[in-house]
UniProtKB/TrEMBL annotation:
This is Lipooligosaccharide transport system ATP-binding protein. The keyword Translocase applies. Belongs to the ABC transporter superfamily. Pfam families: ABC_tran (PF00005). It comes from Herbihabitans rhizosphaerae.
């Protein structure tokens, strides 16, 4: 049985590579039907956690249950009910788009007629029907990514693991991929996504954990995390790098919190326009200014003291 209604349950989960501890005793629960995210920079431990959930990497310590089973003991049974989208596409570029789906389906022992029908359905889902008989190599990056996701669905998985699903894609391709993932979620597939894009996490995830240095530093819905760790608005004052030195003391008291970055100041406040007017009144003259809403990147900056970058 799935403990406490969770498809994935971890307690004190640890992953070591020699003396290096990549995942340092994390607890998490992923509920059926939700989109759950791991947000953090490269090296935070996100992919190591995903590989343990996917039964591709044994845990070094702690407890882990996936679909109510133990990955150490029940790896093949778990993998039969999972879909996995790796960080890098690993399609067979010499085969056609359709053949990539059909041959992968045969790995699961599905009858040929069922595989053919499922492949046709997934080609439509991925908007690749017109490219079905083309080889994979000439496809765009977005098309290859959609094909990789379609292939991961050939066995009707209950749980789909996506590791950095839109890295390297242009904005249009990312939004098309998000639309496909929304459709999957609404059809009842549980999604676990790792990303270092805060807009992706806000768009896709019902709940997420922020990871840094192998640990979970915060957990909640995107709106809950922003409400807890940031302010309603952020005033960005941009300067030529170095020119913002000394301005921090000038704007003291104009915001709940001020972050100093190499080319700007971030003023966290409930009213950005009022803070900007007050800063101008104190003689602050930035190159440019911007009032925006808080994002998950502001949450990460608050929690870790640095921005969320590659």
């Amino acid at each position: 049985m799935e403990g406490n209604g969770a498809l994935v349950r971890a307690r004190g989960l640890i992953k070591k590579f020699g003396d290096f501890e990549a995942v340092r005793g994390i607890d998490l629960d992923v509920r059926r039907g939700e989109a759950f995210g791991f947000l953090g920079p490269n090296g935070a431990g996100k992919s190591s956690t995903m590989r343990m959930i996917a039964c591709n990497s044994p845990r070094s310590g702690g407890e882990l249950s996936v679909l109510g089973m133990d990955p150490d003991r029940d790896g093949p049974a778990i993998r039969a009910r999972l879909g996995v989208v790796p960080q890098l596409d690993n399609l067979d570029t010499e085969l056609t788009v359709r053949q990539n789906l059909q041959i992968y389906g045969r790995y699961f022992g599905m009858p040929r007629a069922v595989v053919r029908e499922k492949a046709t359905e997934l080609l439509d889902f991925a908007q690749l029907t017109e490219r079905a008989d083309d080889e994979v190599d000439p496809l765009s990056g977005g098309m290859k990514r959609r094909l990789t996701i379609a292939r991961s669905l050939i066995n009707d998985p209950e749980l789909l693991l996506l590791d950095e699903p839109t890295t390297g894609l242009d904005p249009q391709a990312r939004h098309l991929l998000w639309d496909r993932l929304f459709r999957l979620k609404h059809s009842g597939v549980t999604l676990i996504v790792t990303t270092h894009y805060m807009d992706e996490a806000e768009q896709l995830c019902d709940r997420l954990v922020v990871m840094d240095g192998g640990k979970i530093v915060a957990e909640g819905s995107p709106s809950e995390l922003i409400a807890e760790y940031s302010s309603k608005e952020v005033l960005e004052l941009r300067f030529t790098p170095g020119d913002q030195d000394g301005v921090e003391s000038t704007v003291d008291g104009l915001a709940d919190r001020v972050e100093v970055l190499p080319d700007r100041l971030l003023l966290y406040t409930s009213n950005g326009e009022a803070a900007l007017e007050a800063a101008h009144g104190r003689g602050v003259r930035p190159l440019s200014s911007l009032v925006r809403r808080s994002t998950l990147e502001d949450v990460f900056l608050r929690l870790t003291g640095r921005t969320l970058v590659d």
